[in-house]
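re: ur question from earlier - yeah i can do the single chain one, its not a big deal. heres the input i used so u can compare w yours
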Amino acid sequence: MRYLLPSLLLIGTLAGCDIISEPKGNVGPNNGGGGGDGVTRNVLLEDCTGHLCNNCPDAAIRAQELKDIYGDRLVVVAVHMVNSFAQPQAPDFTTDFRTPAGTDYENTFQIDALPTGLVSRKSFNNSTLVSRYTWSTAVASLIDQDADVDLQIDSLNFDANSNSVSGTIRAIVFNPAAGPENLTIYLTEDHIIDWQVDQTATPPEVPDYEHRHVLRGALNGSWGEAFLSAADQVGDTVEISFSYPLPSNVLNPANCSLVAYVYNTTGASQYEVQQVTERKLVP
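and the output i got, formated as tokens:
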């Protein structure tokens, strides 16, 4: 057993990672062996947005249209940036949708204009930042690829009394990682009714706009924690147990989901998301 460093938000006992080398035959719900045997790569679309960005509602519509097409294979997360488009502004735009993770991503990926997006953080046309007009092409180019790893939120429990979430995340290795890969756990919230600037509306200041897939926080830190490595062999199962309090900005846990993804931490494809999965907090 190798132990993972707990994040500042970790509560209680849990931060362990187990490697189980058997069985190497039926290693997943699709009986995946080397190469995945039908398990395909899910895609993470991070919609970089802000409530004062008048073109961002169009991007949100495009993201939801792709979600409607691909279903569970596409995970959409709306990341409100720290720039002027996401800053609270009196008297109406007083809600602060920003997160420390969003700030880190804005700085790391040098996001200086909205809307834009990250499609599994892979470079397209020599840029990690992908225009909303080409999201569909970028998503389609990845989503049917054979997966190197299957990622599952194996168990998930929400405790209303402690306002915390706990569970287990499992990875099944189909192809060994080229280098270290981290696991990041997001908490998102859907159906938030609040103000948004929308250039297609009259007037453009919309008081009852529905914000979808809003990032509320990265539970184990913006960059997650060490999870997979080149030492993990085909057929290995790697598990981690977790327990975190819900971020204080959550309005309704019933509208929340847990998003887990693994990404490269080194090399030419640093930050590229290899697999992602999502599960509702409250069934």
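The first helix runs from residue 56 to 70. not sure if urs matches, ping me
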